[in-house]
Write a sequence for this structure.
């Protein structure tokens, strides 16, 4: 199946773009928004999700992969949240059907995604893969070798707190939140995910947790791995 690709720009930085993928013969498939991780400094980039995006496009999906500025090029807090909001607004302005899509994020990309969705009252359907969203918790646990401190250093110097960077969502923002846990995750400990899930549940969010056995952190976004292939199939079936 032939896949067409394109780029949607939402700002002046080369990082401020959305990579678009769809099957040439399909314009009515499920819309999937993907956000990559990489602990805000781009250990991973949007291009690392291209195999996942292409696999979904081959199943008939229209896929948008959001890129955003890294911390070393304007993406410190709140810049990264501004990028997420602008990217999602640009998608919906281009085609309002994107507002009804599935929003999927991996690792610290979950923080980026939820920063863009918080307070929007859209009843969004969200899938978080091994999420890192609570920035204070990430800082306390030293995740990503001090990545949370790098994200918030400028904000803290201005008198803010690390925890200010954690997006706060209410029930109106999310109609469904699926959280996928990799039980052999090398980057995001299980208790970090369960602590976040408990906080979201306490806030009234509709959270479901799925545990994938024998799965590592990057397996979740690798369509050649059983976990990644299962995620592709479940999203394409919507």
């Amino acid at each position: 199946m032939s896949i067409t690709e394109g780029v949607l720009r939402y700002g002046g930085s080369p990082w401020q773009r959305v990579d678009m993928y769809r099957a040439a013969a399909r314009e009515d498939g499920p819309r999937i928004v993907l956000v990559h991780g990489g602990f805000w400094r781009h250990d991973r980039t949007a291009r690392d999700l291209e195999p996942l995006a292409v696999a979904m496009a081959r199943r008939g999906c229209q896929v948008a992969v959001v890129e955003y500025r890294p911390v070393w090029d304007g993406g410190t807090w709140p810049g990264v949240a501004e990028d997420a909001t602008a990217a999602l607004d640009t998608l919906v302005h281009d085609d309002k059907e994107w507002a009804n899509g599935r929003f999927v994020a991996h690792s610290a990309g979950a923080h980026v995604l939820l920063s863009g969705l918080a307070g929007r009252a859209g009843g969004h359907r969200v899938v978080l893969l091994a999420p890192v969203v609570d920035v204070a918790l990430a800082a306390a646990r030293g995740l990503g070798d001090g990545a949370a401190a790098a994200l918030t250093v400028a904000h803290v110097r201005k008198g803010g707190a690390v925890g200010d960077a954690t997006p706060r969502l209410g029930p109106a923002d999310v109609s469904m939140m699926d959280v996928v846990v990799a039980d052999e995750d090398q980057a995001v400990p299980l208790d970090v995910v369960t602590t976040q899930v408990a906080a979201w549940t306490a806030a009234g969010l509709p959270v479901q947790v799925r545990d994938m056995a024998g799965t590592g952190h990057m397996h979740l976004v690798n369509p050649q791995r059983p976990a990644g292939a299962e995620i592709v199939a479940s999203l394409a079936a919507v």
